[in-house]
Amino acid sequence: MKTTTRMLLTCAAIGAAGGVLLIPANNIAAAISVVMPLAYAAMTGIWLIPFVFVLALLRRPGVAILAALFASVITSFTTVYGASSLLTNLMIAIALEIPFAISLYRYWRAWVFYVGAAVFGLLYSFTAMAALGVDAWSVPMQATFVLVIIASEIAATWLGLLLARRVERTGVVRGLARPRAARPARPAKVPAA
User: Cβ contacts of residue 192 below 8 Å, gap of 6+?
Assistant: First the structure.
């Protein structure tokens, strides 16, 4: 990936804005995660928004990871999670980048974002269940917890994609964003003789 100053500044700005968004999210999550795990599950998608947004807007390898690093600079010093927010942000950014890395960053369809978010939500829900004691709940309540996390991740992905489309229409990333998908060239029509 060719990293230009403009790309770094764009990732820094999006990461900083994401960090500001995550300050109250981290603090609220710390307060409610153990006492209201379902409410925590419903808000887990918030952490995806900045990283879905930057990936959808720029369509370049590594931009979610860069934005996560910049977001972590802010959240590390302003939330109760401290430096562990770096690991959380990087985990999310890497998980969101993996589906695109599989295609060598050639295809940027919306469904890839949704699949990545749903898989991440499913995997994260098992970790969260153990950490929050949800694994001691009844099976239907555990299933509800998992479904709420996945729904939150999908809703946040939708919002991140929507915001990226709206910002892209302004033209501010012209020349910086990669095309959405590689399209095969159409063969030229040969005029009939």
Answer: none
